Amino acid sequence: MRFFRSKMRLQNTLKKEIVITGKGLHTGHDINMRLRPAPRDTGVIFIRIDKGNTKIKAGVSSVVDTTFATTLAAEGVRVGTVEHLLAAFSGLNIDNVYVELDGPEVPIMDGSALFFVNMLMAAGIAKQGKTVSFIRILEPIAIMEGQSQIAVTPYEGTRITYRLFYTHPAFGEQRLGVDITRMNFANELAPARTFGFLRDVEMLKSKGLAKGGSLENAIVLGEKDVLNGNKLRFKDEFVRHKILDAVGDISLIGLPIYGHIIANKSGHTLHIKLLRKILSCRESWELVSEPFITPSASGVAAQV
After folding, report:
1. At 3, is the pLDDT very low, low, confident or very high (cuts 50, 70, 90)?
2. pLDDT at 197
3. Which of 89, 113, 131 corresponds to the end of one domain?
4. Domain that holds residue 52
5. Distance in angstroms (rounded) separating the CA atoms of residues 304 and 301
6. Which tens digit of pLDDT belongs to each residue from 108-167?
7. CA distance 184 to 91
8. Is 1 inside a domain boundary?
9. Is residue 6 part of a domain?
10. Are residues 124 and 221 both part of a single domain?
11. Which pLDDT score is estimated for 301?
12. Are residues 25 and 167 in the same domain?
């Protein structure tokens, strides 16, 4: 297959403000969130307006917890469950935005990134007068912890391949590889909802988590089947959501990664560990401002 050089991508922000109200998955709090355009080179900045307008930069160094969600903090102030919103920004190539919140968590909405994507696209995306640099992977970087592994390898584009495995009657092994483009993200990943097991609910609540969880914002698996009436948006919705989470977490490195991320039974913790290892292996990547793209129509392929 031939690869074609793309035009240099400019940084993007929002054309106008967006106001969103919803419930926090883990805290159960009602949260008001305002997304505002930000100048070029700002990145994503969370602002806790209920905590003295404390600013929290969306970056690897801000990650303080990866237990069942990704949590960022600055000056002792936290903001949790950021991965779906960050995935929406990254998937739509939105680089600079202020996220104002009056509570400790990003609203979960329906458990996917679809609501955020629809709101962002309706508001419009504004180009900014500066190009985006990419991290081009030159040689493989990998992390292995028990039965879980994650790696990034050189690739002419941005791709995530994920393998998920559970010993559950509703699903066992799911594999999927997706080229991360605006269209693929919006159509193939954004609608995929978070999921959990009914058997874990009491454990989560004992840890002060999942207080806002329901069948309206998560796929819940009982002993034998899906409790949401078996109404899945994709037959492999579980692995698609894992890729969605990865898109959000990986964006915390601060620049788009030009490579192929391959994950096996991974999660938030390994995603962040991979980012930290990439940053420490400076000889394994280079900064470029003009990536290559493939002429692939969909870039989505089930792995067998």
Report:
1. very low
2. 81
3. 131
4. 11-131
5. 9
6. 999 999 999 999 999 999 999 999 999 999 999 999 999 999 999 999 999 999 999 987
7. 8
8. no
9. no
10. no
11. 55
12. no
DSSP 78-144: EEB--HHHHHHHHHTT---EEEEESSSB---TTSSSHHHHHHHHHH-EEEEEEEPPEEEE-S-EEEE
Q: How many domains does the chain have?
A: 2
CA dihedral 46, 186, 137, 165 (to 10 degrees): 100
Is 5 among the domain residues?
Answer: no
| Residue 22 in tokens | 């919803």
Whether residue 27 lies inside any domain: the answer is yes
Name the token pair of 242: 């894992």
Residue with tokens 């207080």: 211
Domain-ending residue, one of 131, 164, 197: 131
Domain match, 126 and 257 both = no
Cα distance between residue 46 and residue 101, in whole Å: 7
Q: Is 63 helix (H, G, I), strand (E, B) or coil?
A: strand
CATH number at residue 42: 3.30.230.20
CA neighbor of 248 nearest in space, from 300, 194, 169:
194
Give the active site residues. 268
First to last CA, the chain: 21
Half-sphere exposure in the Cβ direction for 241 (13 Å, CA): 21
85 and 172 housed in the same domain = no
Task: Kindly state whether residues 261 and 112 are assigned to the same domain.
Answer: no
Residue 34's alpha-carbon distances to 17, 63, 94, 116, 159, in angstroms, are 7, 22, 15, 12, 30
pTM of this structure: 0.92
Distances (CA, A) of 194 to 91, 164, 211, 233, 246: 17, 14, 15, 12, 12
CATH of the domain at 262: 3.30.1700.10
**pLDDT cut 90: percent of the chain above it:** 74
| Strand pairing class (260-264; 159-168) | parallel
